[in-house]
Amino acid sequence: MKTLLLITSLTLASHSAIADISEIDNAANTMDVTQLKLLSENSHDYEHAYANYRLAVTTNITGQRHLTLKSLTQAQDTLEALLTQQTSADSQALLAAVYGMQIALDNSKGAEYGMKTALLLQQATKLEPNNPRVSLVKAINAFYTPSVFGGGINKAQTLASQAITQYEQPCDTICWGHSEAYTWRGLAKQEQGDLAGAMQDWQLALDIDPRYGWAKFLLSQQAVKQ
């Protein structure tokens, strides 16, 4: 189940001249590969990396593996270059997410990227302890990491709740992930057998962003089962 979740995960998330974060999220929510390509081509620095990350996740869902790997590489190269110029918690968190997806697509990369991911998240937390995107990426990382290695479902739920609280802070620049935090907490609750709590969180994700496709998908799955 967790493998399927990774394939559908951050994808269904939650400019023109130069892309902005909200435009990228809108395209990702509708799995618009053409628009995501355009946004990645018409963006720079962090936005370029973020557009390529969302493009990678979306094309992974649609089975375009070559484009997935290409987009991940572009996101990684951009973020690594940015971090040589200036330390940023948001860039560190996004790069950790990129490394995590690299590992998910090829487990043999765990040795190369596993420690890098942990170090990036540690540095980002120290730099900005209240950054919600850092907490969100830590929650996702914990979801897929066994408890014996410092992860686990309980930790993922705690970190997702922490991110949700942190998203209450005002934000006017890099603001993605609020709906995702509720969605991941719902997934943790589902793993723990609390389906009612999971569905409540997925609905809260839609209350924040009615276009958020992943939460819609998860709720529709449960509607079919019932």
Automatic annotation (TrEMBL):
Q: Where are the TPR repeats?
A: 179-212
Q: Which UniProt keywords apply?
A: Signal, TPR repeat
Coiled coil spans: none
Q: Where is the signal peptide?
A: 1-19
InterPro entries the record matches: TPR-like_helical_dom_sf, TPR_rpt
Q: Which PROSITE patterns match?
A: TPR (PS50005)
Listed name of the protein: Tetratricopeptide repeat protein
